[in-house]
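User: For a benchmark we're assembling, each entry needs the component sequences followed by a predicted structure for the full assembly. Here are entry 17's components. Please fill in the structure.
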Amino acid sequence: MSITEEGAALPGYEGETDPRDAVQRPRALEIGPLTLADLAAVMALEAVSFPSPWSLATYHSELTRNRRSRYLKVSPVPGTNPPALPALIAQGGFMRFGAEMHIVTIAVQPDWRGRSIGEWLLLALLALGREEGARTATLEVRVSNQVALRLYRKLSFAEVGYRRRYYPDREDARILELADLHTQHVWSPLRERFERLSSLMRRA
Ligand SMILES: CC(C)(COP(=O)(O)OP(=O)(O)OC[C@H]1O[C@@H](n2cnc3c(N)ncnc32)[C@H](O)[C@@H]1OP(=O)(O)O)[C@@H](O)C(=O)NCCC(=O)NCCS
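Assistant: Structure for entry 17:
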């Protein structure tokens, strides 16, 4: 599906067909900066999301010492959601080196995957990086991670390279790139999709 085809990629937001919805579904979500107070939840999310999770020390250093890094989280809007919901629904981040932003992580809670939250968060990261001067976004992805690959391709990332045995367990990585982020030609359809998702996710 193209990112310009509106609306269709929002399972769980247009109807009440998911039996988990009655008790679990957040009614409104927001995106904000990840903070030290989120790190316990980040560790739990890492453990269920990645074969080689980052450590608490790595995240702590990223949030406190790495001036190139930016991390965002998706969380329920306070007051609009059932109290039992997790405070952290998703998180992701990038490092920026001049005009290049390198997306270093993105993860959505398993129960909330497939509801466009990862796409929304990735677009928010791109918007922030672009605002701060990025013209190109890059990332690595495991060759076996078909879900993430589809997400990146949907947002027009193209494969530009390959790293053999890149990960600690020796799995290979594909290198993907989204170039010319600063141009209207590339950014307009992404911005439209981001705005559309933002208004749907924030709806209480
Ligand atoms: C990858 C990840 C962040 C995607 O988040 P998500 O919220 O589930 O994805 P979305 O609902 O926003 O889906 C966006 C697109 O991703 C792809 N996608 C999502 N779920 C998919 C699935 N089960 N099968 C195939 N493609 C899928 C589709 O292209 C989808 O667009 P579409 O609905 O128009 O087809 C999430 O699966 C995750 O946290 N995975 C574990 C951590 C991880 O692998 N991170 C990436 C490291 S590089």
